Amino acid sequence: MNVRSLLPTLLLTLPLVALAQPSDQQIIKDLTKPGVTKVELSPGPTKKEWHSAHAQYMWDRVAYVWRNAGVAEYPNATVKITGIARYHYGASTSFREFKVAENEYFGLPAPSKDEMIGMIRERYLDFLDWRANDMVGDLHYLRIPEGEGV
Prior knowledge:
The chain has two domains: 18-108, no CATH class; 110-150, no CATH class. The longest helix has 16 residues, at 3-18. The chain is an alpha+beta fold. It contains three helices and five strands; from the N terminus they run ααβββββα. It has helices spanning 3-18, 24-31, 113-128, and strands at 36-41, 47-51, 56-68, 78-88, 95-106. Strands 1, 2, 3, 4 and 5 form a five-stranded antiparallel β-sheet that branches.
């Protein structure tokens, strides 16, 4: 093979390499920070998604990150952080951010119903924000259903 026959092949494959998605190993490496004990990726491929807030495509992959919860009273408590690892799409597939969707704590005792009502009453204005203005009356009708896991 001569150089002239390789040139068209290289010109066709270079754009594909430039737009390649990040590997699973790269995502796990980027999410493994100090204090992280485990990283898992969702099954399936990394997906190219349009993000209107940034007006560009990005590579997205759901990931689960475990770390110590950092609660002094419960030193063995852990937190499972579910989120999306997001990468730039294009010439550079550099890591952009990890968007957290939820935190799930393990090793902490569940609060009692009275404690939950107290937390809701204490923070409902911050949680509801401007929608709290539409509420009529006090939260005296607020109830926690009976049963486990509610």
